[in-house]
Specification:
Elements (H helix, E strand, L loop, with lengths): L1 H6 L6 H13 L3 E4 L6 H12 L2 E6 L6 H4 L1 E3 L1 H12 L25 H11 L5 E3 L1 H7 L4 E6 L6 H13 L1 E4 L3 E4 L5 E6 L7 H5 L2 E4 L5 H11 L5 H15 L9 H14 L6 H7 L7 H10 L16
Parallel strand pairs: 1-8, 1-9, 2-5, 5-8
Antiparallel strand pairs: 3-4, 6-7
Length: 313
């Protein structure tokens, strides 16, 4: 598994490769926690590429509800079906506006038997809008389901997820239970902004990802920017680690280290001195107050030939 992830551009350590392997063999979701910018989302993408599975992504945010995560009914299509079945009528009042939540459309007119038949028709799969969770469950081919930044939702949303993560099925009152046709690989990511419930953690394999050591990050940078000089890449990574040791609002991510390496290549820089650092540090530092602190604590240290990473602490 480690070799397979490496072939698609993800340098996994032993814990990450082991959890990715066990998730497939045991059929259990993976909960990946860690600070922002450690490529926990990229792990799910890499598993998708390595296994040849389509990636379905649910981006979580505050206020996310079932209608955006599971499914909702196509209200306009249902209403049109009712109007067509009832036939044209000049006296019919204007169509009501769709309700804010998932209330049922207006009840069909006509005989009781006709109303019942049309009611069954408009609550069929033809009128169902599948959102990421239902799309992953109903997929005919194996997929990777990424539930990104689960810590931004509330505990009620977590409770709704339990049925999906435990039994890989979704209950729809109008249709019954829809079970998974294939077994998806589920990856949940969290930046640890709040504590997740024990019920959710109990159903998952757990992986903590932290910022990599200098040698590992150097490998990652050179993998994505192979043209960069090794000494320049090492100096860049050492500077990034110095910056991360400061008390910043947002430490630089691994992706920003890679962006910085590519930027230095485009600029033709052959060294990372104080002048180059001052012009390009906005690639890795994204807050005004952080830029002042980094310039004072790190920029002045770039005059020497060798960087002492521990000195920035």
């Amino acid at each position: 598994m480690k070799e397979a992830l490496g072939r698609v551009g993800y340098l996994a350590d032993e814990p990450a490769a082991l959890v990715a392997y066990l998730a497939q063999r045991l059929g259990k979701p993976i909960l990946v926690e860690g600070p922002a910018g450690v490529c926990n989302t990229e792990l799910a993408k890499a598993i998708s590429r390595a296994t040849g599975r389509h990636l379905i992504r649910l981006q979580c945010y505050e206020g996310l509800d079932e209608a955006k995560a599971l499914y909702e009914w196509n209200y306009r299509k249902q209403l049109l079906r009712i109007q067509l079945a009832d036939g044209p009528s000049e006296s019919r009042p204007p169509a009501p506006t769709p309700p804010a939540d998932r209330e049922a459309p207006p009840e069909p007119s006509g005989s009781a038997e006709g109303r019942g038949q049309r009611w069954e028709e408009i609550f069929s799969e033809d009128y169902l809008l599948a959102r990421p969770l239902l799309a992953a469950i109903a997929a005919t081919e194996p997929v990777v389901l990424l539930i990104d930044e689960i810590d931004k939702t509330d505990q009620e949303f977590e409770a709704m997820l339990l049925e999906v993560l435990s039994d890989f099925q979704i209950s729809i009152p109008e249709l019954g239970v829809i079970e998974a046709r294939t077994h998806p690989i589920v990856v949940l990511t969290s930046n640890n902004s709040r504590e997740l419930t024990e019920a959710l953690k109990r159903r998952c394999l757990y992986l903590w990802l932290d910022y990599p050591e200098i040698e590992r990050e150097l490998e990652i940078v050179r993998l994505h920017s192979p043209e960069i000089d090794e000494q320049l890449a090492r100096r860049l990574v050492e500077v990034v680690h110095m910056v991360r040791q400061l008390d910043l609002k947002k430490p630089p991510s691994i992706a920003e280290s890679i962006d910085w390496a590519r930027a230095l290549l485009l600029l033709g820089a052959d060294d990372l001195d104080a002048a180059v650092f001052e012009r390009t540090m906005s690639i890795i530092v994204k807050h005004r107050t952080d830029m002042d602190l980094v310039a004072q604590r790190v920029g002045v240290k770039l005059g020497g030939a060798r960087l002492d990473v521990e000195a920035a602490g």
